[in-house]
Amino acid sequence: MTIQKNTPPPLRDASTVILVRENDNALEVYLLRRSTKSGFMGGFYVFPGGVVDPDDKGMDAWAPHIDLSGDQIKHQLAGDTFSNEKALGFSIAAIRETLEESGVFMASVKGKTQKDVDAICRYRLNKGLPASWFKTKITSEDWTLSLSCLGRWSHWITPELMKKRFDTRFFIAFMPENQTCAPDNMETRHGIWVTPRRALEQNLEAKLPLSPPAVVTLTQMLAFKTMDALKQEIHSRSWGDPLAPRLVPSANGPVILEPWDRLCDTDGDIDTSDLSKKVLPPGSWFSRIWCDNGVWKPVDV
User: CB-hemisphere CA count at 13 Å for 10?
Assistant: First the structure.
């Protein structure tokens, strides 16, 4: 992980999608391993996502191709924290990035066939596509994007000392029927459906190295045992306050202090001398996470 030593880089808007399904009466999430060549979280397992592009914005351009009205966007996606225009950009980016990275297309199939869905999922694999390919495809083929499939989960802001920083909305969505996840083998190299608990266990075993926000999110999801319970949570969940952790460099490996840690809003150092003895079991709630030889591990205070 690269640590920024000078002026913090500017924040870039980004979207992430927590894809969920029910399998054998257990909730599973879809995780993708980012390419080791990636400039951000390379080699770690993350949820599908990426930056908001200019083409993702513009209510007038997108209004004929989304399934929510302005009032519905306000109620379901924007809330009281940001405008409908901003919510639209984040939401379009969420759907686009989920298609590009995992081959899942959240769109209405009314007037379309399964072959049409399969075709656009294959098309995203073509190399050398222009940046505007998604918007061009949606408008020229008259697709309707399913913004209604997206729910609010969390709002993360990358620590100031990171080389790249993002203002990211974490959406949650349920896996569409009759579709299959597949990594793009460019930005993402491997994909896996896994229960939150198993992912957390394999993270500590260094078999499934997770990004820090993924560790927090998967730990949160352990509270929901059924799909119905998760749906009820999404129905009433707001964005909440932005989560802005603090990164503390250390010779023993960097530590991230989550916003609820008592020292997050201070500039003080922390003791990192015996963190190997403070690693918490999978599923334990935590306020600090330590990078131990490339594996982010929740640790006790």
Answer: 3
Sheet strands (E) in 229-270: 246-248, 255-257
Kindly list the domain boundaries of the chain, sorted by start residue. Answer: 11-239, 245-301
Nearest one of 209, 220, 292, 202 to 251, comparing CA atoms: 292
CA pair distance 168, 51, nearest whole angstrom = 8
Both structure tokens of 227: 């799909």
H or E element at residue 101: helix 84-102
Residue type, 293: N
pTM of the model: 0.94
User: Which conformational region is residue 34 in: left (phi greater than 0), alpha (psi within -120 to 50 degrees), or beta?
Assistant: beta
Helix 84-102 and helix 133-140: axis angle, to 10°? Answer: 100
Angle at 182 between CA 119 and CA 135, to 5 degrees: 45
Whether the CB-CB separation of 144 and 111 falls below 8 Å is answered with no
Closest CA to 290 of 281, 279, 282: 279
Q: What is the topology classification, in CATH, of domain 11-239? A: Nucleoside Triphosphate Pyrophosphohydrolase (3.90.79)
The tens digit of pLDDT for each residue in 123-144 reads 999 999 999 999 999 999 999 9
Please state, in angstroms and rounded to a whole number, the distance separating the CA atoms of residues 155 and 238: 10
- What count of Cα atoms within 13 Å lies in the side-chain half-sphere of residue 15? 29
223-246 confidence digits (pLDDT tens):
999 999 999 999 999 999 999 999
Cβ burial of 263 (10 Å; 0-12, 13-18, 19+) is middle
